[in-house]
Design brief:
The chain is an all-alpha fold. It contains 6 helices and no strands. The chain has one domain. Helix 2 packs antiparallel against helix 6, helix 4 packs antiparallel against helix 5 and helix 5 packs antiparallel against helix 6. The longest helix is centred in the last third of the chain and has 54 residues. The radius of gyration is 30 Å and the shape is elongated.
Length: 218
């Protein structure tokens, strides 16, 4: 006796139920409005890290303006020279300070290329402004502070310096004045990077409704 295999066709009720459930499943599988790509999240992290690093530098240099140098210059010449020599040596050998000093512009540069790649010209422009202000700090440091620091270190042991007051005066006046310029430059760099981060956040919120509309049309 021959056997035959029959294929069951979906009943009208099953077909209607499938048609009704399809849009719901499509909505469940659709990326939500808050979903962001890995590249977007990575760019946020890099730019945020650049803002933090630049803020740390600005805070450090500001501390010299408002506390460290006023306290040292209020003391005697030997204390001031000896303390600055120790501080210069410590900072030149501080891995954390050097990491922050070079890490801030490196992170900002990466954030700039990420902004360019994402098509955010305004964000990239503010990052460039931040790097420009950072460059001002670097120029002042190389032109003024490095030579002053070297001269102070070469002066030797404060106990053996003959004209200690002259060494102190030659160092303090230009060092303090130009450090204010460095602080202002770094503060401006921090502000530019922070605003770039704000613009990036706004851009992400603007793109989300567009993505949602695109999914709806699909």
């Amino acid at each position: 006796m021959a056997s035959s295999t029959t294929t069951r066709k979906p009943a009208n009720g099953d077909r209607e139920r499938l048609d009704r459930d399809y849009p719901e499943r499509a909505l469940e599988n659709r990326p939500t409005v808050d979903d962001r790509t890995g590249a977007d999240r990575n760019a946020d992290i890099v730019l945020g890290a650049a803002v933090i690093a630049m803020g740390l530098l600005a805070g450090l240099f500001s501390a010299f303006d408002v506390a460290v140098m006023p306290a040292l210059t209020a003391g005697d010449d030997r204390t001031m020279v000896d303390s600055m020599q120790l501080m210069i040596d410590e900072m030149n050998n501080s891995a954390l300070f050097l990491l922050t000093l070079f890490g801030a512009p490196a992170l900002a540069a990466v954030a700039f290329f990420q902004a360019r790649r994402s098509g955010s010209a305004r964000t990239a422009g503010w990052i460039v402004a931040g790097l420009a202000f950072y460059t001002v700090m670097v120029v002042v440091t190389f032109a003024v502070h490095f030579p002053l620091n070297d001269d102070l270190m070469k002066a030797g042991d404060p106990a053996r310096i003959e004209n200690l007051a002259a060494v102190r005066d030659d160092f303090v006046t230009p060092w303090v004045a130009w450090n204010i310029v460095r602080t202002l430059a770094l503060t401006a760099a921090f502000g530019c990077l922070a605003w770039a981060l704000v613009l990036r956040g706004r851009m992400g919120r603007t793109e989300q409704p567009q993505r949602t509309a695109g999914y709806g049309r699909g």
